[in-house]
Known about the structure:
The complex is a heterodimer.
Chain A (H helix, E strand, L loop, with lengths): L1 H27 L4 H13 L2 H11 L5 H13 L5 E2 L4 E2 H36 L4 H14 L3 H15 L17 H38 L3 H8 L4 H31 L1 H6 L5 H10 L3 H29 L8
Helix pairs in contact in A: 1-13, 5-6, 5-8, 5-10, 5-12, 5-13, 6-8, 7-8, 8-10, 9-10, 10-13, 12-13
Chain B lengths: L1 E10 L2 E11 L4 E5 L6 H8 L6 E8 L2 E2 L5 H7 L4 E4 L13 H11 L5 H14 L16 H13 L5 E5 L7 H14 L4 E6 L2 H7 L2 E6 L2 E7 H6 L4 H8 L35 H5 L5 E3 L2 E3 L8 E12 L2 E12 L3 E5 L6 H9 L5 E7 L2 E2 L5 H6 E4 L3 H4 L6 H12 L4 H14 L6 H4 L8 H13 L5 E5 L7 H18 L2 E6 L2 H7 L2 E6 L2 E7 H6 L4 H9 L6 H4 L14 H5 L1
Parallel strand pairs in B: 3-8, 3-9, 6-7, 7-8, 15-20, 15-21, 18-19, 19-20
Antiparallel strand pairs in B: 1-2, 1-4, 4-5, 9-10, 10-12, 11-12, 13-14, 13-16, 16-17, 21-22
Amino acid sequence: MKRHAVAVSNYITAFIIIISLNFLLPRLMPGNPLQAIYGEEALIAMTPELKAELISRFGLDKSLCEQFFNYLMNLCQGDLGYSYYYNAPVFEVILGALPWTILLVGAALVLSTTLGAVLGVEAGWRRGRAGDKVLLAGLMVLNGFPDFFIGMLLLLIFGVMLNILPLSGAVSPYANLTGVALLWDIFKHLLLPLSALTLAGITGSFLLTRNTMIGVLRSPFVLTARAKGLSPAAIRYRHAGRNSLLPVVTRAGVMAGRMATGVLFVEMVFSYPGLGHLVNTALTARDYPVLQGVFLVITVSVLTINLFTDILYTRLDPRVSYAY
Amino acid sequence: MLEIHDLRVAYGNKNILNGIDLSIRQGETLAVIGESGVGKTTLGLCIAGLVQGKVSGQVLFQGMDLLKLSEQDLNKMRWNRFSLVLQNVENVLNPVMTIIKQVTEPIVEHGIRKKKYAVEKAVEVLSRAGVPSSRYEAYPHQLSGGERQRAMIAMALANDPEFIILDEPTASLDTLTRLEILKLLREVGRDRALLVITHDISAAAKLGDNIAVLYGGKLLEKGPAKEILTAPCHPYTRGLLRSYPNMTTVKDLQGIKGRLEIPQKGCCFYPRCTQAVDICREEHPPIARKGECYLACHRGGIVPLLQLKDINVNYGPVAAVKGANIKVYEGETMAMVGESGSGKSSLAYSIMGITKSFSGSIYLDGSKVKKRSKEFFRRVQMVFQNPAESISHRHNVLQAVREPLDIQNLGCDGERKEKVRRALDEVQLSSDDEFLSQYPYHLSGGEVQRVAVARALILKPAVIVADEPTSALDASVQAKVLKLLMELQQNRGLGILFITHDIALARKISDRITVMQAGEIVEEGPAERLITRPGHSYTRALLEAAPDMDFIEQEQNGVDLRESSLSSCSFLAKN
């Protein structure tokens, strides 16, 4: 229990630091905090009344401590600020985009990691033989293509030439679908961006698993497993495979954070209304409150995912339970 | 049950096993001993079909050639008919599976029992192997070394195989755990055949019905455990036994010269063998029957260098030696122990031909010595008791040590001087010109005796007859001189007939001891046997008189217990 307490307190510390940074950064920038938050143009367009209201709302006339306290209180109420571009609270804007990204990135992460791991286990087992060489060469070539390029290729082939899958968006607009039809529609829209992301991410976990697998196959316990007369599949997955998983899980945790923003290109190509798309729009419109909100959401989710990875570790490898 | 014929394993160009022939009968235990890197583990893995290299020969398991089986057929045999206990190293068990799961696994995988019943069986074998029940659900890293070894033995028993291969089952265990594991293995081996691969010779002695000695991928010797361990024929086996610290043998530890290097041709052991001859460099000897054992050695095992048969020495009416029979083997020390006047020196003199009044025959290298030719003295040299007297005071160190070369007329002046320097180096004396020009009376007792030893060694003799060579020296110098002789024995195979009245000293340096009383040999045997279980009352008397370091107070039936450390014992305080 004490170990868990240490782990959790680590995460709490990290979280407090992140929140403080998110609070301090705009206030540390040269010039007016409002200017930093909203940009010069927005400030010029503002009426003095609005400006005064904003100043009192952010508590800019109060001490830094009080401001921080207010900021925290607002956060607790889900108040992340107000987006002028969308003319809506930042929280709502992000909430509209977040589920799509979670769906896309989550599915892509799970798929690319699983597929990469399975292929890696098989290739590592067959090291140096034809199957391994083909997989290695094929995936290395695939690794050369950026995800948006794969996305464009897929879009061209399946969307434009074959015309069997939708070109953009996450659902068909104004179709008012419900139930299974809605799910099918979501799935059809998801398929192409998901494939692009999965294909782009597969090589990393493949290479990692394959290399770990080659090392693990030399371990004495694999010899023990062989001596026990187990089936090759049992040796491959139950004994060698499971012991090769740890670095792959670590990588998946790291990738989760990266993909939340790295998904931007793919979401642009498919006009998929996720966080990446939102960030892009906010960047071009200099919608700082949204960017700041997205930053907070992503850091918090990366922390959460890391926590989950840590917990998953202990389930995968009993030796890790003391490794905090 | 298991018969191996001409088994060869090679990884690339590297031959690991070069033609092994072995057999294990039902219910029998065979121990394979040898240093690390001689192919022991490969042998075990090869039987189970687990080596990657090129394998040839036959491994007949109940008449079925395991090497010819397909991987699938072999998988059906593995663990059901024979199982392995691999060397207990880190990660020999899957680190992410609990012990009970790993023991259950082969039962379920081979379709012997359904999972529920398999767990019952796993619990049964685990408790039989003495794994505490609290450890069943533990992971391998949570187990101690001994517990892990037990778990592995339990796992090997899971499918009731008829044959188990154990690789170093006692390595890296503390002595108490080791003893328990040995007990367990003896019990396990009662109704099944075991192949125990080990460098732990005591484990081999305790478990093995038979022992095979492996070196350079070849068997050098095999036979009943008792024969191999009490009377090893091969110099390698003798070397292994000598370098193994244990509570039975009494001689100081000695190693085997050189390092593990297998030559391209010839006997695989010849570079480290002290009795190698020309043929040993040419071809590997075939393994052939010798008594109850099988031996691979061109020389027919450790050769006797010097043999004395029915030696009688008479000085007028006084019989100094009566019918003595003694053998000195290559690389061995034979100590002759007895009080002054028991005829030890007379026997030595008769060997060297110093006294003429003796009868009986002396054999050197197997052939009878007719006259003491120069050849004889090139093979046999003597170190006398009193160095100050045995070196002429008219000779300086150079002349004294050089004299044998002068007599044998070997080499030119320069070469002789060079040899003298080397001989002095060998006995750890200075070899500069200043020392060479010293006279015996300039030197200390220890130095003079070492000069005498150098003189005896300069001809590189096979046998040294040493008559009380250290009795004139103080203990620390004596220790130095003896260490030197032991080292020469290890590296050169020097046979030593060591005459001493000090059985405590004999115990430390000799392989065998002869006890002489009033001209008669009353007892002869391996040093450890003679010391621990003396047969003759005279030997017992010598042993009782031998110096020890026990305190007198304790010897007097412990009257002074209050002063001893036992006084703190609560048991004694109550009584």
